[in-house]
Design goal:
With 322 residues, the chain is mostly beta strands. It is 8% helix and 38% strand. It contains 3 helices and 17 strands. A 6-stranded antiparallel beta barrel has the order 5-6-7-10-9-8. A hairpin with a 5-residue loop joins β2 and β3.
């Protein structure tokens, strides 16, 4: 087995951008699904929706059963987003991977290359934490048609490097230009020279998680919010106009909150092809002047509590679009 020596010279921290991602269970669009753009007349008012509404890139706006209270809320959604409905294509249009006899995915199929970022989750007491690593080489020898992987020691900001155990099974999420893929490997060797890295077995079954869409712009993020003190308040839809690791500007159709109020906030974004969902509480630090044309206004929000890994993910998201 050999490593590409030109690719593996790294500093004492592995020359890796520290990052951490919280994987979500969000349902994403499969190849056999398509989107149909909605007209305002397609969306009923003041009654539960029979189907979910998504933006043009598949981002969820409203779930089935949610209610659009009035024409002002509906107009706000069309002004800031492009509402679509997901429809299933006929079975005959399913992707080639679902065809009878289609061969399993292999490393060559997913476009995993030296230098590619991977997320790695161990089983030795690390829970569900996903650490960041990079591929630094492949073995020459093949086992069952596949090659072993060489990866740097996994890191996460604010935590000690992940110590892997010989024979331990690890879950990996590979982020490539062809999508996001998940598979399992076994730790075959742990090496300390010329730096810390691990040799992983040939992957088990490779599963594609999603097809990467075009990058989402911060000004097009959807957010759902409600007043913290109102236990049964209905979730409202807003648009994230700008964002930082410490707060955001949230444009809303009905500016009823006051400075000092707290909002329960939920939004999601994609960084390096991985979906990150954040549920948090934010304090209203500023209320903008309502737009005379439609009455909408922007809240200046400060996050109350944000997990360090989520803050890092936000920084990564911002770096991609800076």
């Amino acid at each position: 087995m050999q490593l590409d020596d030109k690719r593996v010279r790294q500093d004492d921290r592995g020359n890796i951008k520290e990052s951490s991602y919280k994987m979500t269970d969000k349902t994403v669009l499969e190849a056999r699904q398509s989107l149909v753009r909605l007209e305002a007349s397609d969306i009923p008012l003041n009654e539960p929706l029979a189907w979910p509404i998504v933006a043009a890139d598949g981002t969820g706006l409203l779930d089935a059963g949610d209610v659009v209270p009035d024409a002002t809320a509906r107009e706000f959604m069309f002004r800031h987003f492009e509402p679509h409905r997901v429809v299933q294509a006929p079975a005959s249009e399913a992707g080639q991977n679902e065809a009878a006899g289609a061969r399993p995915l292999m490393l060559e199929d997913i476009g995993l290359t030296i230098g590619a970022r991977v997320g790695l989750r161990g089983t030795g007491g690390t829970g569900s934490a996903m650490y960041a690593s990079r591929v630094i080489g492949f073995s020459n020898a093949r086992r069952n048609g596949e090659r072993s992987l060489f990866v740097t020691q996994p890191l996460m900001a604010g935590f000690d490097p992940l110590d892997l155990t010989l024979g331990e099974q690890v879950d990996l999420v590979a982020l490539t230009g062809r999508g996001v893929f998940r598979f399992a490997c076994t730790v075959d060797a742990i090496c300390r020279e010329p730096f810390n890295y691990a040799v992983l077995s040939a992957p088990d079954t490779i599963r594609k998680l999603r097809t990467r869409k075009s990058a989402r712009m911060p000004t097009r993020l959807a957010a759902h919010f409600s007043a913290e003190q109102a236990a049964r308040a209905a979730q409202q839809l807003g648009r994230v106009s700008d964002i930082s690791p410490y707060g955001m500007s949230l444009t809303v159709a009905f500016p009823t909150a006051q400075v000092g109020d707290r909002l329960k906030l939920s939004f999601q974004f994609s960084t390096d092809g991985v979906d990150v969902k954040i549920d948090t509480t934010a304090v209203v630090r500023h209320v903008g002047t309502p737009d005379p044309a439609n009455g909408s206004a922007a809240y200046g929000l400060e996050f109350v509590l944000l997990d360090p890994s989520q803050r890092i993910a936000l920084k990564s998201f911002m770096a991609e679009h800076s």
